[in-house]
Structure formats: structure tokens, C-alpha cells
Amino acid sequence: MHEKQLMEKQLVGARAAELVEDGMVVGLGTGSTAYYMIQRLAERVRAGLDIACVATSRQTHELAASLGIRILDVNQVEAIDLTIDGADEIDEHFNAIKGGGGALLREKIVASLSRKVVIIADSTKRVKQLGKFPLPVEIVAFAHKHTLKKFEQAGYPAKIREKDGTLFVTDGGNHIVDLHLGRIDDPEGLAETIDRMTGVVDHGLFIDLVHEVLLAEDGDVRLLKKTDGE
Ligand SMILES: O=C[C@H](O)[C@H](O)[C@H](O)COP(=O)(O)O
């Protein structure tokens, strides 16, 4: 990772933690940008901020709990006031690709339960068109080779994700297929097509789930709202 990108992640992560208010139920995202948000949030908790959080991954759960942030099971909360999460790509319509770290399923569930979802992004994440970043799709382990083949037969260059020489396993016990599409002309249509495929649990296309984007740019942070026509 370039130093500029790292600095932007730190900047935007720390700034996002300031969006959290006393009494909120907060969804904590996953990834390296969310890491900095969680660090700053923990400082605020130590200084007296009273919040409860739900985590979008085991990794985030462990990190936040180790820093003294109160984590609840998602079934214990009625709703989530604000979720702050990273993204792999975010376009002008606030559609996103997520799941580069394999956390897309819990991230999508938490986002769908949230009153407000804010994506925290360094400047490399903002794109005109989605698809340069491979689209992660979570598939069940059963018959995964056949599911992979179906993606290829449908014309989607697909690669099953590996880690340390074995298949990557998600928090839900599933595998990930990464679709190397290059560009996605119709995110909504693609999302529907993938949703219909047997063996698919979910995919990393986040359509109409994001309300605001906190974007690091030119050494500063801008809050973009969907109502701005972004
Ligand atoms: O599964 C991982 C998540 O979707 C992350 O939010 C996403 O990959 C962005 O991660 P990072 O902030 O590390 O670039």
C-alpha cells in the first residue's frame, strides 16, 4: 500500500469516528480503513462516549472488544443507528463493491439493518464505473467447483479465493469466488443475475445501501451525501 493511501485511510477513519453520537447502536465495518475508525472510536469510548456496537466480522469483533468497545450480538439490537464501513470501490451513484477481505455477507446484513450507512474511502476507491476490482461472491462449500464452473459458463471470468494454499473460508463457513469483470455496465442487473444462481449465498455488490461517503481527497476529507446527486 502506498504511503498516501495509508495516510488517507487513517485520516478518513479517524474522522468517521466523530460521526458517532452518545447512545447510538453502531455497526462496525471490516478492513484496514475501518481499523482506524475503530481505534479512534475506542479512544472516544475511553473518554466517556456511551455506545453499543455490532461487528461485521469476527476480526472486527475481536479488535473492538480488545479495545474496550461494547459489542452486542446483532440479534440483541432492534436496529442499528449508524454503520461505518470501508469499500473496495464506490461509484457516483453510491453503489459499491465490498468483500475484498471476505466479510461481505455480515457487512451486507448489518448495512441492511442500519438507518444510515457511511462508507469510508481513500481516494483510490472512488470510481466512475464499478468492476476493475474483482467482484467477490460468497458461495456455499458444497459443490463449489460446480458453482465456479457455472460462473465461467455464464461468461464471468471467475477464480476461487485461496489463502495460505487452501480455500479461503468466510466467517459463515463458505468460500469466495472473485469475478474478474473489468467493468460492470449494469450493477443492478448483474446483482439480480448472481442472486438467482444456485449455490450463491450473497455477493459484494452493494446497491442502494449506502447513504453517505466520507472520502479522503487532496489531504482533506469530504462528506458526500446521496441527495447531492452523487
Ligand atoms: O471484506 C472486506 C470489506 O468489504 C472491506 O470493507 C473492504 O474490502 C475495504 O477494505 P479496506 O478498508 O482494507 O480497503
Describe this structure in words.
The protein is α/β, with parallel strands linked by helices and 230 residues long. The chain is 29% helix and 27% strand. It has a 6-stranded mixed sheet with strand order 2-1-3-6-14-15, sandwiched between helices. A 4-stranded antiparallel sheet has the order 8-11-7-12, covered by helices on one side. A 3-stranded antiparallel sheet has the order 4-5-13, with no helix packed on it. The two termini are 27 Å apart. A hairpin with a 2-residue loop joins strand 14 and strand 15 (220-225). The site of ribose-5-phosphate has 17 residues, from helix 2 and helix 4. Residues 29-33, 85-88, 98-104, 107 line the site of ribose-5-phosphate. Its EC number is 5.3.1.6. Catalyzes the reversible conversion of ribose-5-phosphate to ribulose 5-phosphate. Substrate binds at residues 30-33, 85-88, 98-101, 125. One of its GO terms (molecular function) is ribose-5-phosphate isomerase activity.
Query: Nearest-angstrom radius of gyration?
Result: 17 Å
Outline, from the CA principal axes?
Answer: globular
Distance between termini? 27 Å
- So, CATH architecture of the largest domain? 3-Layer(aba) Sandwich
- Topology-level CATH name of the largest domain: Rossmann fold
Q: What order do the strands of the largest sheet run in, or round the barrel if closed?
A: 2-1-3-6-14-15
Bound chemical compounds: ribose-5-phosphate
Helix and strand pattern? HEHEHEEEHEEHEEEEHEEEE
Kindly estimate the percentage of residues that lie in beta strands according to DSSP.
25-35%
Note poorly predicted spans: none
Largest sheet, strands/sense/barrel: 6 strands, mixed
Give the count of helical stretches: 6
Q: Average pLDDT value? A: 97
The beta-strand count equals 15
How many domains comprise the coordinates?
A: 2
Helix content: 25-40%
The top-level CATH class of the largest domain is Alpha Beta
The computed structural class is alpha/beta
